[in-house]
Amino acid sequence: MSTGEVVTRVSVWLVILAYFAASSGSLIQDRRGEPARWLPKIRRIWTVGVAAYIVHVLAAFHFYHGWSHAAALEDAARQTAAVIGWRWGGGLYVNYAFTVAWIADVLWQWRAFDSYQCRSKTVTHLWHGFFFFMVFNATVVFESGPLRAFGALGCGLLVVLYARSVCVRSRNG
């Protein structure tokens, strides 16, 4: 395995681990109502996740696409066609938006934590729904092997934790 493959694969595993850990922790603390104890740890894990994601993106562009947006767009179109039969590279732009949004989310947490904690629940649910969509597609739809299995298991766990937190919130009013 080449250095490029190692960096790209290890970084994506770190991204997925950090995502599942931070999201699970967030859902558990939300259910238990223990934000003071959990939130600093969750924020650190979330930050590690975005850092690993940036490394992953840079590694993919360097080792797989030669820093060419056109090559990345072509690869995205090829992969999409292989999975769903539609040759479309627009998912690359969705990835760009996701990258900017995740960086902004982490910066907001570190720069104005109180404001971040008071954001609308609708914004929070939309953001995490988008994030879940991205992770599900990246691990379950477009991946294979151990990463697909881990992605499916992690996404299933998050669905269960989310459903339980919704039930607890509805009981508690």
Mean pLDDT: 92
Class from secondary-structure proportions: mainly alpha
Computed CA radius of gyration, to the nearest angstrom = 17 Å
- Determine the number of helices (DSSP H or I, runs of at least 4 residues): 7
SSE succession: HHHHHHH
Secondary structure blueprint with pairings:
Elements: H1 3-32, H2 35-64, H3 69-84, H4 91-111, H5 113-117, H6 121-141, H7 145-172
Descriptive notes:
The chain has 173 residues and is mainly alpha-helical. The chain has one domain (3-172). Helix content is 87%, strand content 0%. The chain is built from seven helices and no strands. It has helices at residues 3-32, 35-64, 69-84, 91-111, 113-117, 121-141, 145-172. α1 packs antiparallel against α2, α1 packs parallel to α7 and α2 (35-64) packs antiparallel against α4. The radius of gyration is 17 Å and the shape is globular. The N and C termini lie far apart (53 Å). The mean pLDDT is 92.
Supply the key terms:
173 residues, mainly alpha, 0% strand, globular
What is this entry, summarized?
With 173 residues, this protein is mostly helical.
